[in-house]
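ZP: hey, is the flavin-adenine dinucleotide complex queued? I don't see it on the tracker
AM: it wasn't, my bad. submitting now with these inputs:
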Amino acid sequence: MTVLTVAEHRQGRLREVSREAQTAGRELADAANDALHTAIVGGDAERLAADLACEGVDVVHTAAEGAKFNHDVYTQALGQLVSAIDARVVLVPGSVTGLDYAPALAARLDWPVVTDAVGLTAGDGPTVTREFGGVVTLAVDGDGAVVTLRPGEWRPAAVTGEADVRSFPADIDDAAVRATVTGSERDIDPALTEADVVVAVGRGIGTEANLDVVFDLADAIGGAVAASAPPVKRGWLPADRLVGWSGVTVAPDVYLAVGISGATQHRGGVDESATVIAINSDPSAPIFDVADYGVVGDLFDVVPALTAVFAE
Ligand SMILES: Cc1cc2nc3c(=O)[nH]c(=O)nc-3n(C[C@H](O)[C@H](O)[C@H](O)COP(=O)(O)OP(=O)(O)OC[C@H]3O[C@@H](n4cnc5c(N)ncnc54)[C@H](O)[C@@H]3O)c2cc1C
């Protein structure tokens, strides 16, 4: 069961999810006792390929088609590569880009697509664990499957420089390229899943106007702002800031939880963080069970005091 992972890049940089996919791919390839291939399509593929030569990766394929992401080019190039190497599983980062082409690639191959995997093992085909308020395990039969991976669930593979890098001559049918990206806007915040520091705010903040307290701290320490469910449900912060089972999984160096109780559904998105710091007025809040450091206190005292230290 040859496994193919697909790298993701933006503005000339590889995204961390590319190497997370490689770790997931290696686990699956090991379970199936087979090879792990990685593909990078478009952009400066030849240059970026060196950073994809990671532990456990046998071959990196470059298909340098077009500077920007294109749905049809990705679908065609990856479909051809899957046939050429006889891959049986394609692992795609569960990003906005990955979720764009993964279903189309699956349709082209006449395979199922399984989204939002948090665990993988091998049986006759891949066995995929998904999590959404409960845990579900799916064994996929048939010729193959396209699986999208929840970001932040696997550690990024380390670069070794030892993989075999090959150029793949994709034969793109321009007449079948119907979608074109005409522009893109830069995110105001760094993407949550790539931020080194995340400052997350919960119901304890009280009102939307109080959010300034948290944004000031995030600005002072160069962090991205995230949230538990209540601030998102009230429309104070956009849905892509939600951390947890219904949102994203993050894996920063530091996760600072401000006025968050630490419900299981929230903690599910935080577990991969290297260091968790909690600020909460309730000493029995469950967030302290997973925090490396905790401050029991009123966030309206503690957070401005921290901001002042870092703003100096
Ligand atoms: C299927 C399902 C999926 C879900 N998915 C998610 C998800 O993805 N992400 C998520 O976050 N939730 C999710 N939830 C909701 C989750 O169960 C909790 O309700 C939610 O995480 C609680 O958010 P909170 O900690 O901000 O609020 P609360 O639980 O109300 O906690 C607020 C905390 O703030 C503290 N506090 C109050 N005032 C102050 C102050 N002045 N200073 C310091 N501390 C203060 C309190 O002591 C308390 O601990 C999901 C629920 C279900 C059923």
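AM: back. The pocket of flavin-adenine dinucleotide is lined by residues 133, 202-204, 228-230, 242-247, 259-261, 263, 265-266, 279-282, 285, 298-300 (CB under 6 Å).
ZP: great, adding it to the tracker
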